[in-house]
Specification:
The complex is a heterodimer of chains A (80) and B (386). Chain A is mainly α and 80 residues long. Chain A has helices spanning 4-16, 37-49, 66-78. Chain B has a four-stranded mixed β-sheet with strand order 1-4-5-8, covered by helices on one side. In chain B, α4 runs antiparallel to α5 (80-99) and α7 (224-261) runs antiparallel to α8 (273-302). Classes of the chains: A mainly alpha (80), B alpha+beta (386). Chains A and B meet through α1 and α2 of A and α7, α9 and α11 of B.
Chain lengths: 80, 386
């Protein structure tokens, strides 16, 4: 079974046609996407991992990189 | 327009009957008065059409997105101003539903669902249009909340709204707040004389040192544009796109009817080949816009991340197609089409507005093309020949 990191990487590489994305690459800062992509990332997170993204989660810091999003999903799943 | 055996289509009949009885008869007057009549608003509210997609626990009907789209199409067929009530109010409801805190949902959604409150999205400013992510309106943090100062303008429903979702800059970061109309320091000035969407009751809203509590912040500081406003605007584009499907259908109906009876050069207009070209383009646009909207709706219902872009594509296509259809309809009706004896002149004026709001045509083009450059292969992978 794919890890959280692998599933996020697969989605981002498919969506951005960006191969070999580093785990810490800030996709918003380097111009790969505009900020509107955040809405798509929220939908992806909810659909792919079955977690509810609620108001307190709506911080771009949770979605900037593979690591950020993986950590966020991990926290949501463990309720931390 | 494409009426299938889908049971969701059964709702269309009810929507159409309602619109024919309660909305269509007042559409021209609404345009002349530059105001959606109180009676029309009350009737829409009474049907539970303001935010019918909300879950029942919040006072909605748990309506799926396709059915909601059909509602917007039917209302848009008759009256863009009435459809703008669904759109603008719905954007704020969607933002609260998707991005609001539990307390905000409890406090606002039930009353918004049943029309005890009307909401408006205060995003545009005198100096800020397409570059909406950088508002000049400022929110200054205080011990107990924020103080908002700035001017919003072209705000749909601004004249009657009880609640505003306001995008402001807080420490340089775009941030959204829920602000009650009764808040001290708010001045609402009606705007008249618009080209189209004249019944949408636009207003300029001045915020002068308006205090809002911390719990009126929607989402986190800095998420106001990228997440909260984008969520609202996506909903607005969806509603608007379906409304444009209705406008295209109205133009087609008017054009077919008129050219079937009007005679020139010894024959009905419909016998002339250049007339048929315009009718053909309307039919094709109608089907294409309808299908794009259906696709967007299905993706939205599924929670699919592609819904955002597909909704944008639907809005882009449907709004530009509506403008073309209305332009052709006026052309076909000639001087009659330019008069207020037929609705096509009003539809043309309204259709132009559809190309400007919820993201202008050009902003949509930038986003859609950007998406294409991200999605499609370049180099050897793009080869389609051996």
């Amino acid at each position: 079974m794919s890890t959280i990191h692998e599933r996020i990487r697969a989605y981002l590489e498919r969506s951005l046609r960006q191969l070999e994305l580093d785990d810490d690459t800030d996709i918003f800062a380097n111009g790969m996407v505009d900020s509107l992509f955040a809405v798509q990332l929220v939908a992806f997170t909810e659909q792919e991992f079955g977690v509810a993204v609620v108001d307190d989660d709506l911080d771009l810091a949770n979605f900037r990189s593979i690591n950020d999003l993986a950590n966020f999903v991990g926290r949501k799943r463990t309720g931390v | 327009m494409i009426e299938t055996d889908d049971p969701k289509e059964a709702r269309r009949t009810a929507f159409r009957s309602f619109v024919a009885a309660e909305i269509a008869p007042h559409a021209a007057q609404c345009d002349r008065d530059e105001r959606l009549g109180d009676g029309s608003i009350r009737k829409i509210i009474a049907q539970g059409y303001l935010a019918p997609w909300l879950p029942e626990k919040w006072g909605g009907q748990a309506m799926d997105m396709l059915t909601y789209g059909l509602l917007n199409e039917e209302v848009g067929y008759a009256c863009s101003a009435a459809r703008s009530l669904l759109t603008a109010h719905g954007m704020v409801v969607q933002a609260i539903y998707r991005c609001g805190s539990q307390a905000q949902k409890d406090a606002y959604l039930p009353s918004l669902a049943v029309g005890d409150r009307i909401a408006a999205f205060a995003i545009s400013e005198p100096n800020v249009g397409s570059n909406a992510a950088c508002p000049e309106t400022v929110a200054v943090r205080t011990d107990r909340g924020y103080r908002i100062t700035g001017t919003k303008t072209w705000i749909t429903l601004g004249q009657i709204a009880d609640l505003f979702l306001v995008l402001a800059q807080c420490d340089g970061k775009a941030t959204t707040f829920l602000v009650d109309r009764s808040t001290q320091g708010i001045t609402v000035s009606p705007i008249s004389g618009m080209l189209g969407a004249r019944g949408a009751m636009l207003a300029k809203i001045d915020f002068q040192d308006c205090f809002v509590r911390k719990d009126r912040l929607v989402g986190g500081e800095g998420s106001g544009f990228s997440l909260v406003s984008s969520t609202a605007l996506e909903h607005g584009r969806y509603s608007l796109a379906w409304g444009c499907v209705g406008m295209i259908r109205a133009c087609l109906d008017q054009s077919v009817d008129y050219t079937s009876t009007r005679r020139q050069f010894g024959a009905e207009l419909k016998k002339h080949q250049l007339v048929r070209e315009m009718v053909t383009n309307m039919v094709t646009s109608l089907h294409a816009a309808d299908l794009l909207c259906r696709r967007a709706g299905a993706l939205r219902d599924a929670g699919d991340p592609n819904a955002f872009m597909e909704t944008m594509i639907a809005k882009y296509y449907a709004s530009t197609a509506a403008k073309r259809a209305a332009d052709d309809a006026v052309q076909l009706l000639g001087a009659n089409g330019c008069s207020d004896r037929y609705p096509v002149a009003r539809i043309l004026r309204d259709a132009k507005i559809m190309e400007l709001i919820e993201g202008s045509t050009q902003i949509q083009q930038l986003s859609i093309a950007g998406h294409a450059y991200r999605q499609h292969p370049v180099g050897p992978g793009c080869s389609v020949v051996g």
